[in-house]
Design a protein that fits this description.
Length: 212
């Protein structure tokens, strides 16, 4: 199968990070680091797509006005049939109160740690490149990880919380930086959230739900 759509998606990821680095007050060093690490990826894997209901329901619904985010969404839609979409039950299935979240969240990686990589995803110890889909009316509770993480909103409005900051509504094209150990949470309302998450350090570190 032609892996060009995966390469095109990574190329578009580099583009939005480099473009974002030129914005006033942007975390330019982190964005340019992420772009540089993604540029080094080469896709040679075997496609092992796994269709997930939340992806099938929501990936083709949104319409996006922001040009960069619209291009990202088009590239993700083209690459999605090559990608292994996973649910998150294995990570959070035992956590109390997480059933609705687990049933309505999917992710697919283009780069991940060697022990998690599979299908088209490139095994990498330097960068994690993951695409996420969180269904409507879903709360992703406070969680944290050692990795420095860049989020790019591809589609859907959602509320975002970082550390002790108040909730902020985020829109397609927005870039959010989570520093090492910073707890963060996302809440969707009447539309799904489609996003890109880039880990630029400590890509093998675990994610921990932060309980009050």
């Amino acid at each position: 199968m032609n892996l060009q759509p995966a390469t095109d998606l990574a190329t578009q990821a580099v583009h939005v990070l480099e473009t974002g680095a030129r914005r006033p007050f942007a975390p330019s060093a982190e964005l340019l680091r992420g772009a540089g690490l993604i540029r080094e990826l080469t896709f040679e894997g075997v496609t092992e797509p796994q269709s997930q209901p939340v992806v099938d329901r929501h990936l083709n619904e949104p319409e996006v006005n922001d040009p960069g985010a619209a291009s990202m969404l088009a590239a993700l839609r083209a690459a999605s049939p090559l990608m292994r979409w996973n649910d998150i039950h294995d990570g959070y299935g035992g956590e109390p109160g997480m059933e609705h979240f687990c049933d309505n969240f999917s992710f697919a990686a283009l780069a991940s740690p060697p022990n998690w990589a599979g299908g088209v995803a490139v095994a990498s110890k330097t960068v994690g490149l993951t695409f996420t889909l969180q269904g409507p009316d879903v709360y992703y509770p406070d969680h944290a990880h050692k990795a420095i993480e860049i989020y790019y909103v591809i589609a859907g409005k959602a509320l975002w919380k970082r550390g002790g900051e108040p909730w902020v509504e985020r829109y397609p094209g927005d870039i959010i930086l989570h520093t090492a150990g910073m707890r963060h949470a996302m809440q969707t309302r009447d539309e799904p959230l489609i996003a890109m998450a880039v880990w630029i350090t400590d890509v093998e570190s675990p994610i921990a739900v932060v309980r009050a």
